[in-house]
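pls ignore typos typing on phone
glutathione + seq
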Amino acid sequence: MKLRYSPTSPYVRKVSVTAIELGLADKIERIATDPWSADTDLRKSNPMSKIPCLTTDAGDPIYDSPVICEYLDSLHTGKKLFPVERDARFKALTLAAAGDGMTDAGILLLVETVRRPKELKWDWWADRQTETMKTCMAVADAAADSMGTDGDITIAEIAIGCGLGWVDLRMPDFGWRKDCPALADWFEKISDRPSFATTMPKAA
Ligand SMILES: N[C@@H](CCC(=O)N[C@@H](CS)C(=O)NCC(=O)O)C(=O)O
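k done
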């Protein structure tokens, strides 16, 4: 399998953590890709021109990160990061959606505040994304006591942990820990798990 990646993407990190958890990391060849480059041919594999994008051994492209992670999970007959039992499965998928939603809002906020020309900045949009990040974090904080750290985890812990790691990297002053003490405690513990510790993003 081949994975188009960039080193600081929180969505790529989800795939990397998933692959490590499933013992599949050495089956994946990594191809550095800048999705923002005008020269990239990424769109031929992913019509949204986003990373991560996986190409299977059969040559089929798979995107986006939730689908790639579920594909990797489907290759593994033992450990399951996507629970099979219905209630557990939809609980994990919904919590993972809150984690991804937090990250999506964070990226939109960063584009608005950093990339958009100053005279075009739209405070209403920035405030809305900030609010979405906070409400997703509040959902994760409420669930934190039931989330795994050094035992079994699911795609929910992976999505939330990778999202928070990216927020700390790109928005170190966001100040989420004060409002989400249980989540902060959980995040500190899961950050020591080998799949998280070895994929911790570093500023480029
Ligand atoms: N929903 C997608 C989001 C992926 C995404 O937004 N990736 C960013 C990099 S962190 C990207 O490629 N952005 C390029 C763009 O938006 O054009 C996923 O879960 O894979």
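The chain has two domains: 2-75, 86-197. The domain at 2-75 is CATH 3.40.30.10 (Glutaredoxin). more later
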